[in-house]
Write a structure and sequence with these properties.
alpha/beta; 9-stranded mixed beta sheet; 6-stranded mixed beta sheet; globular; 23% strand
Length: 463
């Protein structure tokens, strides 16, 4: 690990907010490094992990639980937030006047001297960081993958040396409370409506994404999607980093674009062409992910031929347009990661066969009417599930003949198969919603769907 340079050490009291994966990783790091005399953990809900809680208590952690203990956060010298915690609320205002509040990625970044490639955007973040990480590792770079992909940045600090490259998935939640966080390469993939249950409007959401660029210097890079109207038309004069635009639709004189199954790069005083032959990731959205990954790898210094070979060997991530195979003539596709309208729309539009779509779970304030035209053209039936089902029904009332309510994935999988088994087609899980009304996260949701498909396959086989 690089020598400590953090400005957040040798203080009396630190408060961690949130007892999820990130909160625990922060506790483990702080206990190991002995950076604060007193460590506090605040959680809004009662902690049911009694054994884990007691173990941390023995190591000196003081727990603050529920609203009655919330005011004690005013006594902290520093507060570090887990990404799921929204501190842009009235109850945090009084605390913010007295205490510095930072995100976990802000805190973690102060302990390293390594280059950071940070990727944000509404969709495609996990695939992009995973592909960048894959390309770098394939070419001998000490790459460390962390962030919103499910590995807290702070938990990786001991494995990061000065010659490492940290590839970090950065959500808008994680960017809200940054202060000095500065990536060497920052990528903004796209911005479409999402998390409007947390943000007041699209401008609010977009401005949070833009924070990824605010501390970059002249020798850093910002990669911007020319095909996204919000990103393309924004004025970037206040930002210092070198700007590289990417496009899968337009030919760019400076930047990177796709044409005739090749990626063309024209920046850094170099002109390169990289073939997409053999790339296993399919679909328009994945073409964007590949393009941005290639740009980042080229900036790091990976040669074009080596990048091309690495792309061929990359497999897609689970729960992202993941084919679960066919049962008879019916293919099941798990796109549980489609947690917003834009992701669902791209998934629908990537399928030309007869289709049944599964929508629903916890609404995030999305406008499901945006799906109406594509559903009319491409979808035979829509199965609505979870707490958002009636909201979606009301928004899609113009095509109510296509809408059906289902209780769970067991019913959705069986009915979908029965409707398509004669003529064939696809059953697509692309919920357009968060998962938290019925599942722990999108991975859990996808795993349950996969289990139900497996049970049906065995039933048909033995039937």
């Amino acid at each position: 690990m690089a020598k400590f340079k953090s400005r957040f050490i040798l203080k009396e009291r630190v408060g961690i907010v949130g007892f999820g994966k990130t909160g625990k990783a922060l506790l483990d790091f702080l206990i190991e490094k002995k950076l604060f005399k007193n460590i506090y953990l605040y959680n809004d809900e009662t902690i049911n992990e009694i054994e884990t809680k007691e173990n941390y208590k023995k190591k000196g952690v003081t727990f603050l639980i529920k609203e009655n203990d919330f005011s004690k956060l005013e006594e902290m010298d520093l507060i570090i937030l887990s990404p799921g915690i929204n501190a842009r609320t009235e109850r945090f205002n009084k605390i913010r006047e007295k205490v510095k509040i930072v995100s976990e990625i802000e805190f973690a970044s102060t302990f390293i001297n390594s280059k950071i490639i940070a990727v944000t955007g509404t969709n495609g973040k996990s695939t992009t960081v995973s592909l960048i990480h894959h390309i770098l590792k394939n070419n001998g770079v000490k790459s460390v993958l962390a962030g919103n992909i499910g590995v807290p940045f702070i938990s990786q600090i001991n494995d990061i040396s000065n010659d490492s490259v940290v590839v970090l998935e950065a959500s808008s939640f994680q960017l809200e409370e940054i202060v000095g966080f500065k990536p060497y390469i920052a990528i903004l993939l796209n911005v479409t409506p999402d998390h409007l249950d947390r943000y007041s409007c699209m401008e609010d959401y977009f401005s949070t994404k833009l924070k990824i660029f605010e501390n970059q210097k002249e020798n850093d890079y910002m990669i911007l999607n020319y095909d996204d109207p919000l990103i393309k038309n924004y004025e970037y004069e206040s930002y210092k980093a070198k700007k590289v635009f990417s496009s899968i639709k337009e030919v760019l004189e400076v930047g990177a674009f796709v044409r005739d199954n090749y990626i063309y790069l024209d920046f850094m005083s170099k002109k390169d062409r990289i073939s997409l032959d053999g790339a296993t990731l399919k679909g328009v959205h994945n073409l964007e992910n590949i393009l941005n990954s290639v740009i980042a790898a080229r900036i790091i210094g990976i040669e074009p031929g080596n990048i091309q070979e690495s792309i061929k060997g990359f497999k897609g991530l689970p729960h992202r347009m993941e084919s679960l195979g066919k049962i008879g003539k019916v293919e099941f596709i798990n796109d549980s990661k489609a947690t917003n309208i834009d992701a669902t729309l791209k998934s629908i539009n990537s399928i030309d066969e007869n289709m049944i779509l599964i929508l629903g779970n916890k609404d995030k304030g999305g406008d499901f009417k945006l799906l109406e035209n594509s559903i009319k053209k491409r979808v035979y039936k829509v199965f609505l599930i979870g707490s958002a089902a009636h909201t979606i029904y009301n928004q899609l009332i113009n095509i109510k003949e296509k809408l059906n309510f289902v209780e769970d994935f067991n019913e959705a999988v069986i009915k979908g198969y029965d409707l398509l088994k004669e003529n064939g087609g696809k059953v697509l899980l692309a919920p357009g919603c968060a998962s938290f009304d019925m599942f722990e996260n999108f991975e859990h949701r996808g795993d349950v769907f996969k289990k139900e498909v497996s049970l049906l396959r065995n039933s048909v086989k033995n039937g």
